[in-house]
Prior knowledge:
243 residues; Rossmann fold; seven-stranded parallel beta sheet
Amino acid sequence: MDRFTGKVAVITGAARGIGAATAERLAGEGARVVLLDLHGAADTAARIGPAATSIACDVTDQAAVEAAFAGLDAIDVLVNNAGITRDNLLFKLPKADWDAVLAVNLTGAFHCCQAAQRQMVRQRSGKIVSLSSRSALGNRGQANYAAAKAGIQALTATLAIELGPYGINVNAVAPGYIATEMTAATATRVGATPEEHQRSAAGRTPLGRVGRPEEVAAAIAFLASDDASYVSGQTLYINGGAR
Ligand code: NDP
């Protein structure tokens, strides 16, 4: 497949995990990829080669996001993937951790959507795909993260309405448990090894295993491509059949 030949795709949080897998998938199908991450995404860019550009950019910093996007003469795809967790039960959740999670996962996506839409509206085309999560349905110890990820679904539905008239499709994916450094860190926090934590998640999943970043990347690539030309305002759950 070569669905992204001649297209420019911006992927946030592309240094590792789902973001890196998405960058590799889109580049593998012909895209020129612009990789944003806190400290850049040099390793991902090196794996991809000359089709990749790495930029250090904190998505919570609106001026930095504006500067990163200002240098691009075309933006065909935006993947809002940068995300963090700061899990805690509500009664001991520090306000700073509420703010940090909302800032990266939700406000960061707002900053990038606002910067990207200027170019996309001019082009009269574009695809935006944002990372929600199964946690948007509610997850113990993740009030901040669940609220941010539910916010992504509402942002997606609303931007699909606002940007649809300009030929821009806006969708989200909501993964379940995907084996990355994010879930490995969660395992450590609850006193389990990543393998133990994954086994327990697999046991709650109809497909009997956890997901891989490449499996989320494949769904993002579909939504970012013209194969999904009439799909907009949707959130696709990628969770091995879990309810
Ligand atoms: P990782 O933690 O493995 O990777 C996240 C990347 O985002 C890191 O490279 C991180 O940089 C970067 N990042 C963090 N903060 C910022 C910021 N302010 N600006 C720019 N980049 C930033 O996460 P995953 O790959 O697991 O997750 C990717 C997305 O998918 C997230 O939005 C996550 O919420 C979502 N998701 C993940 C699931 C999972 O099970 N893994 C399930 C559902 C949703 P650094 O390394 O420097 O911190």
